Each structure stands twice: as structure tokens, then as C-alpha cells.
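haha ok so turns out i had the wrong file open the whole time. this is the CORRECT one, sorry everyone. sequence first:
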Amino acid sequence: MDIPEKHKTIFKTIGEAADSLDQRVFVVGGYVRDYYLQNRDSETKDIDFVTVGSGIQLAKKVAEKLNTSTISLFKQFGTAQVKYGDMDLEFVGARKESYRRNSRKPIVEDGTLEDDQLRRDLTINALSWCLNPDSFGVLHDPFEGIQDLQNEIIRTPIDPEKTFDDDPLRMMRAVRFATQLDFSIEDETMNAIKKMAPRLSIISKERIIDELNKIVMAPTPSIGFALLMKSNLLNQFFPEMVNLKGIDEKKGQRHKDNFWHTLKVLDNTAEVSENLWLRWAAIMHDIAKPVTKKFIKGTGWTFHGHDAVGAKWVPRIFRRLGLPLDERMRYVKKLVRLHLRPIALVSDEVSDSAVRRLIYEAGDEIDDLMTLCRADITSKNEWRVQKYLQNFDRVEKKIEEVEEKDRIRKWKNPIGGEEIMETLDVEPGPIVGEVKETIKNAILDGEIANNHDEAYQYLLQIKDQFLKKKD
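then structure:
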């Protein structure tokens, strides 16, 4: 085995520990698969081991031999995890599982290595190496997983309908691995996914979104979303995205297919950013186009307001998918709301005020917003692409010039609430907020400079009109 020396040392130690307990032990799953992929996938630091016998007992013996006390026992599941340096070594006893129709919780019994391999999701994940000294490094490949790796095929070890019926999340995993590795899903397996897709309803949204985010973070995430659409899995949890698909025609005028456009924007974003939430902004940027679509005679197809409606949908969709509802959701919501704004700044007549307002509203996300806008250029006409990119170059130059002059990006009102109350001699209340808003607008509109002195002089000028309101 041509593996890192530290791994080989650990594997030999584990094999010796198993021998001392009269148990067989195997390294399984991702580690072995990735070895035969020749590092096409990133090297994992989480390594799984199966033993014919007690996984907990073996983990204790391994921790003792490695001289580490960092061990976690999960007696309910018969598993244990040993932390060694930057590695997590997980041990489980070989088992066979049977499932009840409406439950993801299996009935678990002790089993052989063969039993354990039969419950694996995919042939490429059912590979294992023996670690016992008498058979160290011997490959067990009962379902021709090596051949599937060579042929770049995703396939289940046994009848796919049984595999997916037992654990419907395996359908998402099949799509995820096909996406990450750029493999094809074998026809029988794909047909089973199409048939079994509604079974995904018994899986928690947390487990589904974990797989979906891995698809989103793949090098070419469109592969996964195309497979999710083809297999009918996407409709089980993200119908809004399914609704983007299709083209309408009226009076000889058609609009682009917004599903495929969205996937192109997502891929464009993935090429330049590893930011999961920027990728989600790409997914969501046109999500409300179907409900805002109108055909206007003389104009053609329009989607007026899809940016505002889409931003309004973000919290609801995030909640349903099990995505976070904190600043990450607000980040996506902001980019969806603002994604059309930069192109409106292309004209030479655009005022500094309009640029200031965009910088103020986008804040620290201004650079990511421009990345999304550039990703949104999906025309096949190279001349048009270059024209749009040059337009955005001009917008970014304007943003840079205005920001250099006015420092709006991390803007904070130079006049605070306490100072307003003292100057106007008022108690806390709506007037204070209204005054701050008026000062903010005066700065953004360029009526006054972004500094305390001019803001305070302006406060004295508008003081009386607000005192009249008070009276």
C-alpha cells in the first residue's frame, strides 16, 4: 500500500491490537476508495474501521497502544472514536441491519464482514483492506467497486430499490458522489431513485441539507442539481427551484430557461469562490422569476420585482430546508435583493448618490455582490459577455472612487442618538430615529460631507422642523 507512513504505522498498530483480541479488522469506505481514485478527492483525516467483534473493545485497545486517552464511546450504537493527532479513528463492530417500512432506525445485529459490506450505500464505498498482520493490505471488493471506479460509475451493491428503501438518504449520497467525482449514475440505480424519490420524506431535513451542501460545494455543482432534477429528488424538498425550469413562448418571443441559467450562475460562482453562502445566493438570485413573469406587448417577457420577492422568500426557504436563519441567511437575502442594482449604475449620468446608496446597503458584501453580478452573465454571445464585463469594470471603478472619497462602506452615522436628544431637548422616541434617517439621507445624497462637523451643522438647520413635530 502506497500510503503515508504515519497511516501505515497506525494501521499496523490497529491490526496488532485486533490480533491480541482475536478479532479481524478492516479499514473501510472513503479512505480505501480515495486511494484507488489516486487522490482525485481530498485526503480524509476521518478513517473508518470495521471489526468482526466489539468495536468499543478494539478502540480501547488501540487507544492504549497509541498512548492516547482521547476516546469517545457510543455504547448505544456499538461505536467508538479515537482521536490521535489530527486524525479521527472510528471503530464499529460488523453488523447486519434490517429496516421497518416507515422508520430510518434499523434493527441491528452482529454480523460478518460480508453482512457489513451488504449494507453499504455504493459499490465504491464497499471496498476494504484487512489490517491483521497475516493479511495486511489485502483488498476485499465483493461488488466490483474497483471496476466501477475505473468506469466512473455510481451503483449500489445490491438491488437499488432495496438499498434506497432501507435508507432513502442513500439516493442523495449517490447524487452527491456522482457530482463530486463527475461519475455517471448507472441506469438501474437512476431508475430506482426516480421510483423511490418520495421515500425521502422520512429523512430529516438536517441530513438532506448536509448532502445538498456537499453538492453545492462540489467543483461543478450543476452536475448534482441536474441529477436531482432528473431523478425527481429536487421536487421532494426544493419545489421553487424545480419551478424555474421551462420556457414560455408568446408572439414568437421566448425567455431563457431560468433553471439552467441558475445552474450556470452557480458554476460561474463556484469557479471563483469557495464561499458556501455566496453559492447559495447564486442559487436563490432568480428564485422568484416564475411568480413575477409577465408578457408585455411591445416589450416581451418581464420579471419585474423578482429581486424583492426572492429576497422575501429566502427566510422561508432556508427555514424549510434546515439552513441557518442567522447572519448567513441575511447575507443571502441581501445579495438576492441587491443583485440587479449594480447594472443600473452603468450609465455615465449615474450620480455619486446612487453609488453611495449601493455601497451603504451592500456594506462589506459589496465585493461579493459584484462577484455574483459577474457570475450572472451567462450569454453565449462572447461580444455581449465582454460588453457586460466591461460595464461592471466601470461600475467597480465608480464604487472605488466614491468609497475612496466618502468612506461609506462601513458607514456609521456621525451623530448619535444621545447628541440628538441633547440638541433637540427631547426624550427617546420616534423623532430621534427620524432625525438620524434625515442626516443619513443628506450624507448619501451628497448634501453634506460624511463628517461630524457638517452633520452637526445640518442638525442645527433641521432642528426646528422636528421640534414643530414634537409640538
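The radius of gyration is 29 Å.
again sry for the mixup
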